[in-house]
Amino acid sequence: MHPARKQRLIVVIAIVILSSVAIGLLVYALRQNINLFYPPKAFSANEVPRNVRLRAGGCVSPGTVVRSEDSLQVVFTLVDPEGSLEVNYDGILPDLFAEGEAAVVNGQWHDDNIFYADQVLAKHDETYMPPEVAEAMNNGEKHEATCAEMSYGS
Asked: What is the mean pLDDT of residues 10-22?
């Protein structure tokens, strides 16, 4: 093989290997940070993977918010028309978090059927509901639903 061809072949092989490594690392990093959304209905039907990072959302069921007296731990239930999800959160809740309002939580669903949240997001004004929550509450129909329109049966 001619030395110039051999040198070009080595350069091309090096570029292919480095590109493959870069793409592999990118895919690995994105896999670690993906955050899938599930409504409470999916948790009730046991359709959600356990012990992986994900996002859930629904309406905070009135009368279910229980705050610990000696820590920042809060337990509450998120509901939609077809299911419910018990959430355990240890931290400061957003100012706009309230019973009967929409909320989205990030965390993991464990084998004890409790969602352990590390972040709670609440609506930012009185008419807003996260699009994922509104769509889940209306069975896929695009319509701005509110938690006040929903009945809170479990």
From this structure: 96
Instruction: Sketch the domain layout of the chain as residue ranges.
Output: 1-34, 36-149
Q: What is the dihedral of CA 87, 93, 97, 102, to 10 degrees?
A: -40
- Whole-angstrom distance, CA of residue 95 vs CA of residue 13: 56
3-class SS at 23?
Answer: helix
Q: Residue 122 forms beta bridges with which residues? A: 103
Q: What is the DSSP string of 131-154?
A: HHHHHHHTTT------GGGS----
42-46, 56-60, 120-124, 146-150: range with lowest mean pLDDT: 146-150
Q: Which two tokens stand for residue 34?
A: 């993906």
CATH topology of domain 36-149: OB fold (Dihydrolipoamide Acetyltransferase, E2P) (2.40.50)
Residue linked to tokens 């092989």: 13
Contact 42, 67 (CB under 8 A): no
DSSP summary character for residue 1 = -
Res 146 pLDDT > 70: no
Tally of residues, the chain? 154
Please report the pLDDT score of residue 132 as a whole number: 67
**Residues 53, 105: contact at Cβ < 8 Å?**
no
